[in-house]
Amino acid sequence: MKVTIDWLRDYVDFDLSPERLADRLTQAGLETEGIETVGSETVIELETTSNRPDHLGALGVAREIAWICDAPLRPPVVAYDTVPTLDGKSIAELVTLDVQDATRCPRYIARLAVGVRVGPSPQWLVSRIEALGLRTVNNVVDLSNYVLFEFGQPLHAFDFERVDAGTLIVRRAAQGEELNALNGKAYLLDRDDLVIADTSRPVALAGVMGGVDSEVGDATTKILLESAWFDPVPIRNTSRRLTLASDSSYRFERKVDPFGVDAASRRFLSLLAKEAGAVILEGEVEFCSKDFLESSRHRISLRPARVTQVLGVEIPTEDIRAGLIRLGFEDQTKKKKSSALEFLTPSFRVDVTREIDLVEEVARVYGFDNIPEGQLAVRAIPDNPIARTSEILAQLLVGAGYHEALTLAFTTKEDAAIESWWSATDPFEVRNPVRSAERRMRRSLLPRLLQAVRGNRLHGVETVRLFEQARVFHRRPGTHSPIEREHLGWCCHGEGSDFREMRGIAESVLRAMRIEGEIWTPVDGNTGGFQAGRLAQVSFAGERIGVVGAVSLDGVPGDVWGGELDLAPLFERSSADVQFREFSRHPGVRRDLNVIVAEEVPWRELSDTITGRPLEHFTGLSFGDVYRGKQVPKGQKSVLFSLSFQAEDRTLTGEEVDAQVQGVIEALAEKFGAELRS
Amino acid sequence: MTPPSDDLFQRLDELGAEAPAKISSATDTAELEALRLSYLGKKGSLKGILRGLGQLAPEQRKDAGAAANRIKEVIEGALAESKVRLGVGAPVKSAQGLDVTIPGRLPHLGSRHPVRQVARRLIHIFHNLGFAVADGPEVEDEWHNFIGLNIPPDHIARDPSENFYLEDDLLLRSQTSTVQIRVMENHPPPLRIIAPGRVYRPDTVDASHSFQFHQIEGLMVDEGVTFGDLKTTLRLFFTQLFQRDVELRLRPSFFPFTEPSAEVDLRCPFCGGNGCKTCGRKGWIEMGGCGMVDPNVFEAVGIDPDRYTGFAFGMGIDRMTMAFYDIPDIRYLFENDVRFLEQFGIE
Lengths: 678, 347
Fold this sequence. Notes:
heterodimer; A: 678 residues; Phenylalanyl-tRNA Synthetase, Chain B, domain 1; Phenylalanyl-tRNA Synthetase, Chain B, domain 3; 6-stranded mixed β-sheet; B: 347 residues; alpha+beta; BirA Bifunctional Protein, domain 2; 7-stranded mixed β-sheet
């Protein structure tokens, strides 16, 4: 909303620089976007809030200045001379008004001006119209715009001669009816649109735009002036559907002042008489729904105690009263001693309907800045175990060299293979995606993380380690309702990345949550999105909790590894409890072994065999490495591992340990044909 | 007239203050040598001062001599340090041959995302103010995203083009205010919560818009909670965040779920209000919206609006992050380029 300083001075005297004025208005809730000079005018641009349509006219802004500066408001002149008849006919005989949809149009006033001389606007008008950033058209159009920006009330001027039978019908459009609008475009209307029609066709799209058929032109001498109140929601629907927004629709959408309908109409005619030589016909043709005007003003009681309860400051009752009166509220308190005040709202304050709205007005007059700070009581809050665990996991991943990523939660059809690991049901889809392919809500974190790895690689970053903890979106089993699960995803590519790193991350995460006993199994057959034979799943307590595998990405040489854990079941079992375990202070013994076994023998079978033996003082088995190559026969592999022994109460001797190690070697030889490699 | 002794001691003090500062800002060896000569040379300042020694009483001469020696040591120390700094005259190997100039082997550390770092900072501050973290789903229904928040069916905010609608009455939450409703539905007052999280709006992507972003919502409800308490909370929060006194401005605004409502402006902490790039030369930065919980919201969740009052506030985390680190384009935040991420390190 733009307005010029000069214009505001028409209604109120103030002694403030434009900057200071902007500041005061901002503090009153009318934020200033900027101050600029256009020609000889100083223009301030205000950002209005959607609940204050009264700010969409210069007069409304002047009202704010009037209370801010405690100065009287000078409303504009709305009086004009009239003639009783035109060619012996009164306005009632010349103009027929038929409002068929009173819900959508509860008030409509038509007035008639004759002898209009359409021509260029006077300089003062051009100057103000151009200061608003509008183009001057002619005196009639400019004046109707002027009044729109003065009262916030849109008007429409029809060429009376071009309205059939002088009849205005406010009705729903017929399906498929067309209107050639003033912007030169034709619009196809439907039953939801409200039109102003004459006896043969629509002449305006109510509240949005007029039609060319009845447009005021240079030859126009008689003007039929519309001023009305239209229901905001259908106006907006029509405006949206037709992608046709105007200064009119903008204001009707936010509710115009029901009383301003008449005042703005009179204002226009008084200006038209002065600037275009118009002669105004006495009276008007008006439709107004029963109680429409009465119901637009609200009687509200305000308890001063409520003001204190909400704002935390005791404002004297007399100050409350005086402040609200300054804002235009009418004091209707009956009993002097009553604990509640009663106010009638002014019709232009369509936003104020409740006691709390008045409290806000009291706060505004008192000044938000003047309300003193309160005393906040100290309060302890309980720990949030999930947040704490998430924090630990992030630190762990960062320590392991992973960068935390934030990816977008939308996936495409192409991502479905990897996502199918987590959900067989359909994803949720947004109806209006910003990027048309990305319409699905992610069921897995990996697609977007892998995309980020690829992006890095294409940008020349050769080693990429990323992780993210975020939600995925599934459907509750048996229903279609959404269920969100917290997942942890991580990817690595480039130097050092391999399956063991990926598994190591998963294991570290589980250990950090104090969870042990997960089971790793290879996945063959359908490896959805991952490379065949290079995929493992991890389960815990019979439930699959994660997946780790290698992926091939377009344009990325080598493997990209991706891993993902469902944290939801893990959070439930995670524990922060740590119990100290005593450890031996006597030296232990470690024996490194290197055995050759057949390729098919997995580590777990070897380790189960070893740990299944009744070893004494055995403290641990640790995997070293697997080696294949020159010195190892084809189809076999060399496995390195070590066994540790330690006694609680004494130093172990080599002999005690060697006998046990020999037993291990023999067991492995018997079961797997393992040979000790020297 | 000043006694010669006072004058001499004062000049020594001045030299002791001036010389190390100048030496440590020398940018090359030639400059260093010039400084050395000007302080310690035959015609240097120190000698000049000591020429006045003869005028002192004998018992003062000793003190002055000691003071001069101290100053000389200070200057020599500063000269030696600067030599190392400028890479001359410093030893490179220990007697045993340890080359200490070889760079250290650094652990390969990852980094925390800047948005998460800022979110954590905010959570931490609010924790200290007694606000616990609350959570709500990202796939919401119209009740929690609109109706409970006093946003009527015909409100502009509910337009399909402003939201990511899914199926039925489900949509991706467009604001973290939904968590207010979730919390109040399930917990009686007193309440003091914050809700950081992802939100979604179908905005066209550009330097300052993303269709997925982050907000933090705050809510406090109890008997006797006032607008004054809201001001206190916000001031304490921003004071903690910027680690200095801040100037806040609450200006009247409009949100359906609060009344009175206000925009929170902060006197730009980056330029002190003089106008800079971050505040768009306005001197104030818009930090978010706030207000007293609207009685309609209390009624929607079954809390007695006559007995309880409360305040709520919401802020954008992404914009705050961009301001903190001077990130020019929001797209950096979601692109996950390692060269971006690694700049923010660990916190």
